[in-house]
Amino acid sequence: MCMLPELIVVATALTVLVADLFLSERRRVVLALLTLVGLAAALAALLAAPAGSLFGGRFSVDEVAIWFKVVFLLASFLTVCLSLDQLDGRVKVRVRGIGLRGEYYAVLLSTLVGAMFLVSARDLVTLYVSLELATIPLFALAAWKRSDAGSQEAGLKYVVMGALASAFLLYGFSLLFGLAGSTDLAAIAAAVRPSPALFLALALVTTGIGFKLTLVPFHMWAGDVYEGAPLPVIAYLSVASKAVGLAVMFQIFYRVLGHMVKDLGPLLAFLAAATMTLGNTVAIVQRSIKRFMAFSAISQAGYIVMGFLGPDAGGVPAMLFYMLAYVAANMAVFGVIIFYANATGRERIEEYRGLARTNPLLALAMMLALFSLAGIPPLSGFVGKFFLFSIASKAGFHWLVAVAAVNSTISLYYYLRIVRQMYIEPVYPEAARLPVTPTLAATVAVTTVASLVLGLVPVFYEVIHNQTIEWLAKLVG
Amino acid sequence: MSGAVAALPFILRNAWLVAAIPFVSFVFVGLVLRPKVPRIAGVVATLSIFAAAGVAGGVAWEYYHLFPPGALHPAIVPFAFEWLRFMPGLTVTMGVLLDPISVLLLLVVTSVSALVHLYSIGYMHGDPGFGRFFTFLNLFTFSMLGLVIAPNILQIYVFWELVGVSSFLLIGYYYEKPSAVAASKKAFIVTRFADLGFLIGVLILGYNGYTAFGDVGPTVAREVTGRIATDLQPFDFLYLTHPDLLGRLAAPALAVGGVSLLTIAMILVFMGAAGKSAMFPLHIWLPDAMEGPTPVSALIHAATMVVAGVYLVARLFPAFAFSGDALTVVMCVGAFTSLFAAVIGCTQDDIKRVLAFSTLSQLGYMMFALGVAAMDRPAGYTASMFHLFTHAFFKALLFLGAGAVIHAVHTNSIWEMGALRRKMPITHLTFLVATLAIAGVWPLSGFFSKDEILAAALRGGHPVVFGLGLLVAALTAFYMFRIYIVVFLGRARHEHAEHAHEAPFVMWAPLALLALLSAVAGFVPFGSFVGIGAEAGHEGIDLAVAIPASTAGVLGIGLAFLLYSGDGARATAGANALGGAYRVVKRKFYVDELYLFVTHRIIFRHISRPIAWFDRHAVDGMVNLSGWTTRRTGSLLGALHGGRVQAYGVWLVGGTLFLLLVLWSAAF
Amino acid sequence: MSEGAVETILFYAIAAMSLFFAIATVTARRLLRAAVALMFVLVLSAGFYVMLAAEFLAGVQVLVYVGGIVVVIVFVIMLTSSVDLLEERPPLLRKALGALAAIGFFGTTAAVYLTTDFGAAADAAPPAESARAIGAALLDYGPHGYVVPFEVISLLLLAALVGGIAVARRSPPPSQPLTSGGDLPGEVSFTPPKRQNDPEGGASHA
């Protein structure tokens, strides 16, 4: 039963929503636990269930889909872990207006279901509808700090831009349908030939994907939305939402345009270079850690897209591996950011000064995770970048590798800014050790160790590689 | 091919444990015990090294079970995994290479390290950085073991640097002491400078090895079938030391200015080795490194890290031997360092500095022993490794004994000690054993190994080196007995020396064990265990060598007694008679001053200043400009994200149109 | 006069009106007027569906968009008493940029359609799907059915509903327990929160 993980997540969402009605305010603490158990069960079901398909092939699970779903489930699981302290009120500094736990988890799980359906979709309609399910609830989540005008503004901007991008995507899909006369991805792949209308469809679809994946120049919303939205939601946006974009891109670029993907190389390379360069240069001048992470995430998206340049499908395992490494590192960083915001309410980069004195282990975790994002060996970010760069280099995009290397250097500079604040700048005068809740501590610890282990032990990459590559070779032919 | 490897005994297939245990302990001690319960950090760290020593013992047992003594001892790689794959056919692996010398080093490093750990529990007791010390000590042991088991040149380079870093941390352990900080910096900078040569050598070897891999690789791969766990890679030692490849590297076509590429690469590699093993003129960091805690000196600067250079030369010995010229360089540098350091050692007043120069001198011994060997005449190779083996024990013992003395009298100057024979009987006895061993007195271990080296030099047709060796042997006996007499005999020269007392059990137990090892290690039939190429020659004691060597030793000892027993007036008179020459030696031939002069006066003033000016005004300007440009661009681009949704929409539409036009125009 | 000619005239008439109201939607300064203009655009779109023989879709278009969405928009305008609000005149540059983007987009898409050879797809008769066939396809779980997206949409509606309600609900005043969902008494007063002023944050410019 290959749809079991999705069904478990849906069931969990509904259970949480209903249980919320019958629980008193104090007892609603169990909702987070319920959600986590559901997610863990879904993950177990995913890893246990074999690949297969349902509904005459309209919903099918293959090796690539499984790995995408692993990324989605892990990201959601970690997001819940990062959210529950704020939602349950176990914080020193309250976040204005956050609450409604049952609804929060239910909505979060719904977006997850959308993401999971999306990688298994084999027709345009399911793909589009699932993408909407993965996106629209996020608008509400971005505005979840209900009495905070910034959060409302973030939600509104996200809605407007999201609707625009979604319209573009739908326009592109409808053109694809019009050109091929079918909604089935394989049928479209067989029917389409290069023509101006296909290019228009492609440009429109890329716009929609670029919005999710924050590719330049479709990334504009990210800074504002990240600034206003609640922190755990940003963590989800920066990781899971990007993975969703990547999944749609994979569906369209490999399943529909598999035979054309080589010709798209220069354009993708240009997008990648523009994205990483803009993300990095703008990140340098940010002062708010949230906006900073927004642009850092944009630059990471630039690196990931390099995986599509491969002459064969060899880039997919590299992208999946980088995604996993990115989930681990980014969630560790957000774990520390959320911890610090919960304990002190501080969200500016220069306010991180002296964190290494008060909470050395958390500062260490943050430093390792940032180094992983910057791609310093032997952390997983380095190995991931290494594979992505070698894909680009094999495809002949040496200039892109050079641009990416320069960008990595720039990114090291601004990641070091935070490290400098934590380790070198003097501590606040009255600073004492800040208490950290067990869930946050465990989340940060697990993700940090994961960023280390993924880099040191190559087994993970090998597994992803072996499972996906053979199957992909058939797809691209 | 991995079938044969899979059939190997369990402990050989899992020999990686020997390095993994200290690493796990390092992480555990460093992250958990150090901040929480530093008191038990020492015990845990020590137990882990003992466990590693147990694994090393198991590995040695199984290895020699598989390849019995006397037979040929091939190198095997029972464990390896792929770490990074650049492209098919170019992969970086990590793994374990076992051959006689790596097994030997595993035993030496783990056993000495375990005893030093044990000793440190007593020595560092009450130190505020107790936990930190053991964390670093574990890290160092891990790095050293990773270096020893490296099956390819990249792994050895990685761990080589890691060893450098951990030794930097340990030398600078007393970081509130400016001299310790300066010494650690000096050690790091000098060895880093040397490593630059090593790195270039590695790159030359690696690049040429890789380009020749298509031709030579399959042959070598067939030869090593069944002995290695993964496919042969271009960086593996098994490949890099194969005659077919070396022949290609030494080919005249690749020669630069008449010198073959192989020779250039090997001399560059030797530069790295000379840095780590403190060969002249890169030796200047080692005496200063004595600023670290004494157990560190015993572990790093006597038994393990400084022999890494010797080990590297031995590991790449076929390449050095093939080049010939490179091996001659090794011999000359080794022999000169050996004499040079021994002369300086006779004049130093700081007990640890004497031992440091003695270490330099003995390392020179090992180096020139390698230098006089050849593939068809491997006696020097065996002798060098033999000396490495025995020296590790008696030099560690000397340092630990010196540490016990320093611990008791709170000074390093031998002229503030004296008459410690009665106050510290165990320390005295063990120190005496080590002194006799290093002086080469029969039947202690130093006699046998030194004898082998001298015999190898004589038979290898290097009478000058042989004579030099004899001279160094006499000098060694002299300066070692000089400090022995001044420290332990005579009368107490300072009130500290009068109130000295014996070290606690955890400190003298390692001393006793090491003394036992120093005494008996010479009786190991070493030649049947360690050798290379042709059957090793361990001919037993050659009287033509033993008699002059022993005479030299006895002469040195006699001279020391003549000069230093009693009130030492004769020594002062002697020093005065030598006058300027003595002062020159005492100031270590002004090498440090020369370095200072060259670096400060010449380089700083006449080269650095103009460069600095250029740097400040031109390069800095460029760098600042690029930084400013980046920031400025960042601000400008940041201003685009002004928060106006309508503008974002325009960008979105513009982006779509751009994509469309690019795609469309590319189609024509 | 053939039937084709009538259809052509009808098409251009609807298209012209549609264009007029669409321009009116974006240029009207009063929100209510824009909403009414939008309603006409949507109704006229239903006209296109009728001409393409998709009567069912035309009905749905009128029901959902005119009967649902435009009504909601009008409600919002009325309830937030922004009927009298006049949209501020955008600066010329922004107008120009917006126009440029729109015209550019129109121009390129028009060029695309003029140069593309749609081949067989252009001549194919519009499929005469009855409401019954659409319903059957939506619930068909075979290889040509759409039961998966149908179910996904149901989940999407639920999530959007829950999320929308959650965001629209009043938040508790600071005196209430943080975690309160807003269902406890004593939260009638709503004090607008003070925004922290962020000098370089983009959000404050909007």
What does this molecule look like?
The complex is a heterotrimer of chains A (477), B (668) and C (206). Chain A is 75% helix and 1% strand. By secondary structure, chain A is mainly alpha-helical. Chain A has a domain at 260-477. Chain A has a two-stranded antiparallel sheet. Chain A is globular, with a radius of gyration of 21 Å. In chain B, α17 packs antiparallel against α18 (351-371) and α19 (379-409) runs antiparallel to α25. The two termini of chain B are 53 Å apart. By secondary structure, chain C is mostly helical. Chain C is globular and about 50 Å long. Chains in contact: A-B, A-C, B-C. At the A-C interface, α4, α5, α6, α8 and α9 of A face α4 and α7 of C.
CATH class of the largest domain in chain C, please?
Mainly Alpha
The largest β sheet of chain B comes out as: 2 strands, antiparallel
Question: In whole angstroms, how far apart are the ends of chain B?
Answer: 53 Å
Instruction: Give the ordered list of helices and strands of chain C.
Output: HHHHHHH
What is the radius of gyration of chain B? 28 Å
* Assembly form of the protein: heterotrimer
Mean pLDDT of chain B: 80
Percent strand of chain B:
under 5%
Mean pLDDT of chain C: 77
Structural class of chain B: mainly alpha
Strand neighbour order, sheet with most strands of chain B: 1-2
Task: Estimate the helix proportion of chain B, in percent.
Answer: over 70%
- CATH hierarchy: architecture of the largest domain in chain C: Up-down Bundle
